[in-house]
Amino acid sequence: MTVAGDPKRVRPIHPVFAFLLAAGVPLYLGGFLSDITYGNSAEPQWANFAAWLIAGAMVFTGLALLWALLAAIRPSGRGLRPVLCLLLLIAAFVLGLVDSFHHARDAWAIMPAAPVLSALVTVAAALAAAVGLSTLRAGEAP
C-alpha cells in the first residue's frame, strides 16, 4: 500500500495531456486509410482528405510534444517514461512534417510513398500514446 505523500507513487497523467496524446492517433490513422483509398481509386479528393487529417494530427502532436517537453524537464521521479514519450513524439512530429510536405505535391505524385510515410507516422504516434498513457511501473499488478 502506498501513502498519499509517497514521492515514488505513480500518478496518472493530466487529462489534457492524455487527450493531446490520443487525439493525433486516429487522425494519422485516417490519413493512412485515405492514402490507401487514394491508391486504389485514384480519386484526388482522398489525397486532400489525407493531407487535412495529417495537418490536424500535427496540431495535436505539436501540443503534446510541448507538454511532454515540459514534463521531461520537470523532475517528477517517473523514470525514463517521460523521456521515451518525448522521443517518440519528436519522431512522430518529424515524420508527420515530412508526410505533410510530401502530401503537398500534386495528386498522383505522392504515390507510392504517401501510404508508407503515413503508416510510419501512425505507428510512431500510437507508440508515443501507449508510452505516455501507461501509468503502471514495471512489476506492478494492474
Ordered list of secondary-structure elements with their pairings:
Blueprint: H1 15-41, H2 44-73, H3 81-103, H4 113-133
Helix pairs in contact: 1-2, 1-4, 2-3, 3-4
Give the helix proportion (percent range).
over 70%
**SS strand fraction:** under 5%
State the low-pLDDT regions, or none: 136-142
Class by SSE composition: mainly alpha
**Whole-number count of domains:** 1
- Global mean pLDDT: 86
> Describe the biggest sheet?
none
Q: Any idea what the radius of gyration is? A: 18 Å
Distance from first to last alpha carbon: 14 Å
**Count of distinct strands:** 0
Q: Count of helices?
A: 4
Order of helices and strands: HHHH
Name the overall outline. elongated
Key terms for this structure?
single chain, about 140 residues, mainly alpha, 4 helices, elongated, disordered C terminus
